[in-house]
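Okay, any thoughts on this one?
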Amino acid sequence: MVRIYNILTTLFGESKQGYFDKSCSQYQFNSPWATEDNNGVPDGKFNLEVSMSMGKYHEWVTDKGGNLSRLIKRFGGQEFLQEYYSIIKDLKESRYYNIGLFADDGSSILSEASQIKLPETFKKIDLSTCRKQKLVDFLKSRCITQEIIDQYNIGYTAWEDPDRKFSNRIIIPSYDSVGDLNYFVGRSFDDKDKRPKYCNCKADKEEIVLHENLIQWNSTIYLVEGALDCLHYRNTISLLGKTLKKSSEVFRKLYEKANANIVICLDGDTTIDEVKRLYNVLNVGRLRGRIQYIRMGTNECPYKDFSEINENKGRNGLIDVFKTAKKFSEIELIF
């Protein structure tokens, strides 16, 4: 159990008790949610209570609670989660420890992860042999080359796919830091398709970093909205929207791992207030002073997104746009 305690202290700091005591079954830690809200500084109130005997947690201010595996995954990611699974396995096999009360084996999270599978008829695209002309025309119009397809393992599905919402779509998979599938996005390529253009898998987008396996944390990172936008330039993360929560995996990884500038590149229909809101979320702690933004849809950059820039100006056009990145002054962020 001391191994579990050590995971918790690594993630949340020392407990209120101050050390591991085998006779103690309840420990109090500083709430990680309060720490996030306080720009990374613990509040010293120890509102996160962990039952070591049951593998459960409860946060008294937000009333969050559940299996310890979910808490560890949320704030420690796959690396700490796998270590936790290893500990539970060892405990179950030990003749010297009664794990009868321990209610958490991580099965709920494992079952969620196993449900993220590409559609049954998924097939990687090969432009040299693909007979779906509308698909080929769409990819050509978006400047998506075979090189991009190979890099991102982009495929498509048949009309006959059992999951009808993903049938006859381009499928853009995403893989985590160890190469496991963690998300995928479906995009229609037929103008006559009356369904919504985009369709995402059921996984929680707040718990993943899209294309994490391709991110170089020591280089400049670009944040965009759409799933197609991030295909056109290296080190680009799609937020799948305009907002970013401090509770999200993207924020956590950026805060912990990003060592260069982070450039916000939201679509041209984004208001200046929305850009400032995202800027303020990121411009904290060790990231402060390294956040920049680019305004799309302006005289300086008259395109709506990365895809449109690439379609009109190519890679050199993207590089020219990057040169327009700038920072907000403290006064600008107030008003």
About this structure: The first strand starts at residue 26 and ends at 29. Residues 68-93 form the longest helix (26 residues). Residues 25 and 52 are 5 Å apart (CA to CA). The two ends are 51 Å apart (CA to CA).
